[in-house]
# Entry
Amino acid sequence: MKSKAAVLWEVNSKWSVEDIELDAPMAGEVLVKLAASGLCHSDEHLVTGDMVLDPAMAEAYGLNQFPIIGGHEGAGEVVEVGPNVTTLSPGDHVVLSFIPACGRCPSCAIGQQHICDLGAFILAGKQITDFTARHHAADGTDLGIMCCTGTLEPFTVVSEASCIKIEDHIPLDKAALVGCGVTTGWGSAVYAADIRAGETVVVVGLGGVGMNAVQGARMAGASVIVAVDPVEFKRAQAPIFGATHTVATVEEAQALVGELTRGAMADKSILTVGVAYGDLVEPLLSLVKKGGRAVCTAVAPMSQTDVKLDLFMMAMMRKELVGCIFGNANPRRDIPRLLDDYMAGRLLLDELVTTTYALEDVNQGYEDMRNGVNIRGVVLH
Ligand SMILES: NC(=O)c1ccc[n+]([C@@H]2O[C@H](COP(=O)([O-])OP(=O)(O)OC[C@H]3O[C@@H](n4cnc5c(N)ncnc54)[C@H](O)[C@@H]3O)[C@@H](O)[C@H]2O)c1
Ligand SMILES: [Zn+2]
Ligand SMILES: [Zn+2]
# Structure
């Protein structure tokens, strides 16, 4: 069928909204009519070249990362299913999970769907069913899809493993956000940081991910939630999601938390800035007390491997530094559960969406993200 999509042809270029050809779903795949796509910072890491396909994998599987259709935070309605699809039917509403959850690999089997074996291929662009493309440019060039989803287009074909079925009455434009940013932020607090009632928590960086780490901390029962962002608008919004204190810099957070805890420092800290750099790690760890935990959720440029770290103090004060992907959550359990929380008024989604865009305005949407205008910008299809 004829469709359109936001395509990135190479690093450091603009998204090109163009006509594409979309094939019918093949075995194990479904055609989804998308309602919306959140503008997560991770697509920006493709643009800047921070996040590149492992060259060894590219060669082994004959894959190219570019050109690629962007977007990985979407929801919509299944309109057609390919052969051998057993869990979905036309008319089903789904959130697309930015990491597939196959249900069968060792990680999925022990309740760690965020590290499903199929996640190894999310930057490879092609269908995880057979490593070929269903999306093609007007000149016939195969197009990849970001995180096996490609939500910056009104229709996509994805594996059944990327689809999480949700209830029909949930607004799809809000459900889209739970496909990445909401679950990532909320799970950074609830699972990765393992926040307990009464704790003191610092969240560094208040975008679509960080604001949900703030609300995850609130839902987990944290007593003090210090939200850090240089952008005044973000700090003004943070109390809506549960922040008890706001500051502009990590240095200010260190002083404030020192004061609030009589020098003990916070129980947990979470890094959700737009780009993670190695020199942010030591300040993040210095925010937490003896036995405390710092969580790194933000994505660093893949070529960066140096980290500044006081290793002596980390060991002697028994601090933990942990990584976090997709909030260390289980999309098949947590996406429906978070949407239940939204429908019951316990999780805020409407307040996250600060501007909506047409697909044609996706470059403006990302420009607004860079300028700190939005908590989450959302493309409506
Ligand atoms: N680990 C995962 O599974 C996962 C999933 C989704 C997104 N991410 C990553 O999480 C990060 C955040 O994503 P987002 O969509 O919320 O980005 P965003 O651009 O919407 O928000 C980032 C925020 O960080 C703030 N910031 C920048 N530098 C700062 C600093 N030094 N101190 C305090 N605040 C600072 C910015 O002002 C902005 O408000 C990105 O790196 C993204 O790629 C990771
Ligand atoms: Zn994302
Ligand atoms: Zn799996």
Observations:
- The mean pLDDT is 97.
- The first strand starts at residue 2 and ends at 8.
- Residues 40-42, 45, 180-181, 184, 204-210, 228-231, 234, 272-275, 297-299, 324-326, 369, 372 surround nicotinamide-adenine-dinucleotide (ligand 1) (CB under 6 Å).
